[in-house]
Amino acid sequence: MKKIFIVITLSFLNFSFAQSYLGENLSAVFLSEAKLNSFEGKSKNLVGLVDLDKNLVEFYIDLNTLRTGIKLRDKHMRDDYLETKKYPFAEFVGKFNDLDLASVSKKKSGKYLVKGNFKVHGIELPREIEVSFKFNENAKKLEIKASFEMKLTDHEIEIPKVMFYELSNTIKITTDGELVLQ
Fold it and tell me: What is the CATH number assigned to the segment(s) 19-181?
């Protein structure tokens, strides 16, 4: 009986100190700016996990949820360029360096560098992303903001052409939202 009590107590302590945050309806914006034409794809279906115990930062999005405001452009973007039937997701998996992990684990708001891999269109490349964290008063919620750029050609995505001009090879990606302590 005493062993069961100890196991239950240890399980409770482990659960109470868990430092895992999850968000399921985060915002992602993919911005393409070119001289003659700019547009953005938006989604509120970014899923994010920040697990401080495992030093894991993971975000992924179903690219089929991106919307540009024009249905035909969305169809061409998914079918001809992103090839979402074959590569439906974009994801980032990374971790903090030891110094940043120590600060984040103490629930200190601030900007932190996360090193990991960004995968889209079947191509995974190393990436360092600065992420802004803001913990609420009791650290039950974590607001995140991040932005970085990617080159379409680095991920073997053809640069879209509209009429006689190309869109930008560089896409700016911004994310934000709230994760909740699990």
Answer: 2.40.128.110
